[in-house]
């Protein structure tokens, strides 16, 4: 690893890192799941990028691990007001997946689908340029099942409901469509720094 957590921990205090209305959950990591936690076998796991792409692409567990890896170290923010500092995840950048699938020019939104049926919508611009990952490691260990293991979406600059656990499909779309929580009143974009919690915020 080119940098250690200790070095970053000393260099970066927590000041200025708590978005408005949030509190630091500390060492805890609350579990927030609308559906029953699925048992997903990596031997049968797959991730598909389809919709408005030139090359709809599906990766198996082994295939996605052969892509160049990418890590995130930073903070996550849940709309229920907890934030967690200095979490580390490893997986693959969504850029890597999109490079293979080739979004068409008219693609402007993404629907993230979980194998459970959970969905969440995102502007395409929020999952490109190193801002989003599909991750399977947390703190150097396999991502726990209740936190979305074997693999979840990670979009840390938006409220955490956008980070679909047990992600199985990224569907590129020309037009925005509300996902599960968005149909239930949550904001379409969900920027914690702008406090975009609910529709109309
Ligand atoms: N499939 C699925 N993904 C989900 C959710 C869910 O209910 N189902 N909840 C979202 C919400 S509201 C939050 S805050 C985070 C919670 O992730 P955690 O349980 O790992 O903390 O997952 C998001 N992704
Ligand atoms: Mo949440």
UniProtKB/TrEMBL annotation:
CDD domains: arch_bact_SO_family_Moco. It comes from the Bacteria. Pfam families: Oxidored_molyb. Residues 36-181 form the Oxidoreductase molybdopterin-binding domain. Residues 1-25 are annotated as: Disordered. InterPro entries: OxRdtase_Mopterin-bd_dom, OxRdtase_Mopterin-bd_sf. This is DMSO/TMAO reductase YedYZ molybdopterin-dependent catalytic subunit.
